[in-house]
Each structure stands twice: as structure tokens, then as C-alpha cells.
Amino acid sequence: METVVVMVAGLVDHDVAVRVWRDRPGSVLVRHVAAETCVRRWVDGVATDIDLLHGCASCTVREDLRELLAALKGHTVVLHLDPLLEPDAVRRKLGVDVECVITVLDAATWLDDALGDASMVSDQRTVAQVVVAQAEAADVLVLQGDADERTLAVLDRLAPGAHRCTPETVVVRKSTRPRLMPLTPECGVSTAVFTADRPFHPARLNDALDSLLDGTVVRSRGRLWVADEPDVALHLESAGCGLHVGEGGPLGGRTTQIVAITLGEPDSITAAFTEALLTDDELSFVDSIRKLAI
């Protein structure tokens, strides 16, 4: 009999994990909270302090969860994640099948957090990177308080197919697949889509990235072809005013694709990245250099 895992995430205080646990007789409620010198773990309300491994709270939680899930094989485990943890990151590191990811958010403040540049106290991430990653991983979004239409339109694009409910009506439900992001503008929320079949100029690309950091973009993702990296694609990801660009594996097809959820003008984003592409003269020069190298 396989272990069933339900993850409950969220940066806000909530009792949703307890509600899910109570609604599933025989399930086990697990929660970890990091402290300065240890990690406190609760299993069905019984607390245990665990010494930090190498001074790393996340490493300690990960290793303890591996052992716990092995010991609880065949059970339903309701995993109340530490507020700072992102469900997809936990799922990848643990290598477990998850029946449902439930994310709890403050409907009144979530969008401001998702657009902002506030930093987390505990690590190098921004608050936006945490709350956006938690929301987009959700099969079920639990809204504490009333959300305005603009927030709901953003969530429709960030987590399409996710079921929305309140803490009192929470259910464990796998979202429908495939998740198709709406492309039609709604309540001032748009989806910018940029594609190109020529590489970026590295310096101009750096300038174009600023179009994603003006406080109107909730989330962007992309796979970039840059002229000085002819064999490697770069992976782009931003949330609010936090951005990361890193190696994304072999280039494969020589194309660029960027998708951004924005409350601003999508045309300004596509225009900025269009201006960052190599011109015809630059492209001819690069091609001639490559031929000489061969």
C-alpha cells in the first residue's frame, strides 16, 4: 500500500492542515518548524526537537521527512510545510508522489507581496519568489479573506485549473490537467508571450530584463538563446522584483520563448526583448566568425 502525501503550504498562519487531518480519519499530521539551534517536529501533536544537521535547517527537515515517510509507508500523511518552503522544491528533493498540494494565502495582501521586492530574513529569496512559487504549485488555493477581481485574474493565470475555496470549505482535490493559461486580458492582467528564432545580444538582453522588474510582473519564465552561449540555453525565472537567470541545459532548437504574467503593458515587454535581439548585420558577423572557427 502506497503512502499518500498531502502538502499544505503558505506563508500565512492558518489551521488548514489541521482541518484536512481531521477530515481524513487515520491520517498522520506532520509539521516542522525551524528554530535557531534545532528543528521542532510535530507528529499528530507530539513534539520532538531534532538537532540541526551541519547547521542547516532545510537539510534537517529533508532528511527527517525521508525517514518519517519511510516509517509511515501505507498511511496518509498531511504534511504542514514550514512557511518558507516551496512545495515543488520539497517534492523534487524527497522524490515522493503527492496527491494534492494545498496553498493558503492572504487574499488581501498576496498580490502586493507577489509584486514586491521585500527580502526574506532567512535566506536570499524575496517574499515574492516564495508566495508565487507556493501559489503556482497548488492544486487547491485556500483564500483567507476576500480577493479582488485582479488578484483572482492573476491566480487564474498563475495556477490555472486550481480549485479555490476558503479554510472552512477546504477539500483535497487534484487539479485538472492540462493547465492552460488564459491569454485574454482580464481586469488589467495580461499574458505577454515572446518568441524569437535569433539570439540575444548579451548586453542588450541585460537591459531588456529590466522590463520584468518594474513592479508590474508577477511571474515570468523563459528559455533564452544568447549569442555568446551558442550551445547552452539559459533559464529565466522572475517573481515580483526578484529574478534569476542560470544555465538551462543544451540549447537544442535555436529559439527563445518567454511568458510573463503582467499588470502592465505586455507590448512593452515584447518590445524590450525584440530590441535586444541581434540585428541582421550582427547575426551575419557572428555566423562568419563561427565559420572561421570551424
Automatic annotation (TrEMBL):
Source taxon at top rank: Bacteria
InterPro entries named in the record: CobW-like_C (IPR011629), P-loop_NTPase (IPR027417), Zn_Chap_cDPG_Synth (IPR051927)
Domain CobW C-terminal: start-end pairs: 189-277
Short name of one Pfam family: CobW_C
SMART domains referenced in this protein's UniProt entry, alphabetically: CobW_C (SM00833)
PANTHER family given in the database record: COBW DOMAIN-CONTAINING PROTEIN DDB_G0274527 (PTHR43603), ZINC-REGULATED GTPASE METALLOPROTEIN ACTIVATOR 1 (PTHR43603:SF1)
Name of this chain's protein: GTPase, G3E family
